[in-house]
Amino acid sequence: MIFTSIYSDYKSQGLHPVLIKVIDFLKETDFSDIGPGEYELEGRDIFYQVHEIKTEELEKRSPESHKEYIDCQFVVKGEEKIGITRLKDSYSVKEYFENRDLIFYKSVEDEGYVHAVEGCVSVFFPEDVHKPQIAFKEPADEKKVVVKIRTSLLSNQE
């Protein structure tokens, strides 16, 4: 997992060029007039989803991971708490949506949390089980962008 901000000097953090390109896109794009939906940047290799959601209590959220894509989650407006832990073979799958590259788990262990506010970028790799959209103090409206990056793009150097 990588946790940074569009306001930080992320270009000097040793990030892969594809991640820098995605964070540049997030920093330079005005999402105020972009409604909920899915949009392509580079076909199905890099695409993004805009969500206008309400955060929820911890108990209502399920831990998740992805096999084919890296999640780059960006808080446009609002705030959330995000749970994070490493993937273990012992975790029981609750639901698997292959067409959405989405795996939900029944429960996880050793979960830590980050507080993501406007401008924060969280990057989750396939080995990162994460639980987004947790209410920080109480459920609240949030706008976020989730950029999906095909994992194979990070194994290819530019």
| Cα gyration radius (Å) | 15 Å
Largest sheet descriptor:
6 strands, antiparallel
Strand count: 12
Structural class label: mainly beta
Give the H and E element order.
EHEEEEEEEEEEEH
Please tally the helical runs, counting DSSP H or I stretches of 4 or more residues: 2
**Overall morphology:** globular
Keywords summarizing the entry:
158 residues, mainly beta, 6-stranded antiparallel beta sheet, 3-stranded antiparallel beta sheet, 47% strand, NanQ/TabA/YiaL_sf, YhcH/YjgK/YiaL family protein, NanQ/TabA/YiaL
Provide a descriptive summary of the structure in words.
The protein has helices at residues 17-28, 152-155; strands at 2-5, 37-42, 46-54, 64-65, 69-77, 79-86, 93-97, 102-105, 112-117, 120-124, 128-134, 141-150. With 158 residues, the protein is mainly β. The mean pLDDT is 96. It holds the Pfam family DUF386. This is YhcH/YjgK/YiaL family protein. It comes from Anaerococcus degeneri.
Question: How is the topology of this model organized?
Answer:
Layout: E1 2-5, H1 17-28, E2 37-42, E3 46-54, E4 64-65, E5 69-77, E6 79-86, E7 93-97, E8 102-105, E9 112-117, E10 120-124, E11 128-134, E12 141-150, H2 152-155
Antiparallel strand pairs: 1-10, 2-3, 3-12, 4-8, 5-10, 5-12, 6-9, 6-11, 7-8
Summarize the structure in short.
The chain has two helices and twelve strands, in the order βαβββββββββββα. By secondary structure, the chain is mainly beta. It has a six-stranded antiparallel β-sheet. Strands 4-8-7 form a three-stranded antiparallel β-sheet, with no helix packed on it.
